[in-house]
Write a structure and sequence with these properties.
Layout: E1 54-58, H1 67-80, H2 83-88, E2 91-92, E3 101-102, H3 115-129, E4 139-143, E5 151-155, E6 159-161, E7 164-165, H4 166-172, E8 182-191, E9 194-204
Antiparallel strand pairs: 1-4, 2-3, 4-6, 5-8, 6-7, 8-9
Length: 205
Amino acid sequence: MHQRARRISSITGAALAAVVALGGCSSDSDSDADKKSPASGSPAADKKPDSDASASSPASAADRSTAEGAVAAWVTAVVKGEPKDACLVMAEPASGSKPATVGSEKTCADDAPERKQIDATVKQLGESFTPEPPSDDPKVEVAEVPAKGDTVEFPAEKITIDGQTLDEIVLSHSTGVTADQLDINVQSSKIEDSWYVTNLDFNIG
């Protein structure tokens, strides 16, 4: 099976450097799955917005007070095709002497150097993340996952869009891929007291 699975590591600094395309799978046996990259964040001791310890995001509101809220806002922006909103809730953690970089009005502006690539990536991810039938105002919910140090990794089954889990949605848009071959995780990290999406692992194989 010819499989294409590449990771989006950050939206600021390096921008969205990779695009996921599942619809073109055929019967070859190549795999281009990436490993996870480390990122920094903080303990998930923040107050949860809902009593069931999950977060939901209504379209444009970006709740960075919890990891769940940040992921919900990012997924909502991707599904709605709003690259600037997706950019604003993403960040690149500090690495060595390089400080952390978070999405801002400047780095996410229409004329920012990264925007063309960001727009293309969000468009393609949106096609994979959108459930059928599509909704103008998708309801995204993210269940709580225990933090590991400063980061939280959310498996696709913990992310629900209009009542369907993200892994189910991606599978519905793919060809020749089974559930046990798909491994999707969205990472959130806490940077300067706010949570951001800092990595997307999208692997097949």
